Amino acid sequence: MSEKVLITGGAGFIGANLALALSTRPGIDVVVIDDFSSGDWRNLRDIDCELRAADCGDPALLEEIAEGVYATIFHQAAITDTTVLDQRRMIETNTNAFADILEAASHSGTRVIYASSAGVYGNSPAPNRIGEGECPENVYGFSKLAMDRVARRWHECSEAPIIGLRYFNVYGPGEYHKNEKCGNKTASMILQLYEQIRSGKRPRLFKYGEQMRDFIYIRDVVDANLAAMEAPRSGICNVGTGQARTFNDIVRLLAEQLGCHPEIEYFDNPYAFYQTHTEADTSETSELLGWRARWSLEEGIADYVRYLEQGERGPVGGSAS
User: 3-172+215-242+277-294 adopts what CATH topology?
Assistant: First the structure.
């Protein structure tokens, strides 16, 4: 008999890649929940899973969780647009819904693996370490920090592990729908810059492109989630490469793949809360998950551009390297 695995937000970027990877595992039946506020049905077109259109707070869903229907819950659903300033909406959608899922899971002893974010670190000095510099600059980052705090409160009384994964800057196949549904605001800068260069436009960066981020390929993010299925205890982990790179690096690597030499247009940064340097300390991640990123930025961009140039738009899952 197959064991059921629940993915909330499973029609989104990370959720759909995770659904693809899990659906190919023998003995696993994937159930996807999505309200389609930012997810897209096309991400699930080639994935054999059970799909329901619902909110995370759906009473029938919470009852199923409490009754132990699911062996593992991957909670990916959230508002991911960091420019959303509606504080109540952000907390209700991200934090409150997560608390409801944890409460339901506590009744059944179900493992919960959830998406946190490097946004919790704000502009604290890098490298970013769990338990240090957790000072978000916007309500999105705060909503994720609040989720981590809720999770810690449940750690002691939960029979099964609760694992938080603080994603750094994720990019890769499966995010293309964000161009249409979210006005490109939540797509990775790698996809945005690819589109600009591919269409013959000058790539646009905040002055002067030397801001640094820890860019992590989607295949690695999926593998981190799968590793969390075997984690022996609760905890919070950074999911990044541990190496920060500049946005100028991104343009250079994309140009190499596309065989061109674009001139960059630099402009003023309008966001006071913008993170200028993120870099994951992954020591705790290695200890708890036995996981390290396998894809360098060069390898990830090359793989991603190959998919985009072939007209591929859907998810790819994990590993494959």
Answer: Rossmann fold (3.40.50)
